[in-house]
Write the C-alpha cells for this entry.
Amino acid sequence: MDKGLRSISELSLDSSLHAINLHCNNISKIEAIDHVWNLQHLDLSSNQIDRIEGLNTLTKLCTLNLSCNLITRIEGLEALTN
C-alpha cells in the first residue's frame, strides 16, 4: 500500500521522537532526521531508497529497517553502535 510520501522533509518531526515508521511510501532519500537525537526505532522499509546516508547523528538508534528498498551497498552505518 503506497501512502504517497515522497520525502521525509515533507514532515515536521519533533526532536524528542523515539520511533518513526514510514514504510510503504515513495521516499528516495534519507534526510531531515538528523535532529531527532532520541530516535531508537526507524522503519523505512518498502520505499525507493538507494543509499544509506544521514544516520550519523542517530547514536541511540537500536532498530533500523531498510528492507525492500533499492540499496545495493551497505555503508554509512559506522556511527551506529547500538
